[in-house]
Amino acid sequence: MRKESKQTAKILYFPNTTSNKKSQACGGVWEWDVQLNLITASAGAFDIFGLEYRKDGYRMYQLLKRIHADDRAYVDKHIKDLTLCKKKETTIKYRVVLPDGTTRVVKTYGKGCYSEEEVLTHIFGISEVVATK
């Protein structure tokens, strides 16, 4: 992640979470470069999706295919709302299905960054596992 991304991620938080350290203990921070369609993140953020840490990141579709089929439209709607400037930030809960069949309930907070023309360029966020089934 870029230096400014890490600095931004440090100030992100989950409203109603008692401790930012608590949320990072079973999750992590991430950045999505919308133009490149590339997500870079901490090892903990990739681990939520059952993916190995890669410095060069992953494409968005690689993470989206791990989201439970019943939750994909919900997640897509929130991404679209950020893209169309209907929202500047969002907090959502959704399920991630790992290759071994384990299901994780994930809470994600994302904040959009926009160009002067109001075009979404990046989303910075933090995600945490809130339950495992």
UniProtKB/TrEMBL annotation:
Annotated Gene3D superfamilies: PAS domain
Coiled coil stretches, renumbered: none
Name of one Pfam family that matches: PAS_3
Transmembrane spans: none
SUPFAM superfamilies tied to this protein: PYP-like sensor domain (PAS domain)
Family annotation (InterPro entries): PAS (IPR000014), PAS-like_dom_sf (IPR035965), PAS_fold_3 (IPR013655)
Domain PAS fold-3: 39-125
Protein name: PAS domain-containing protein
UniProt lineage: Bacteria, Pseudomonadati, Pseudomonadota, Gammaproteobacteria, Methylohalomonadales
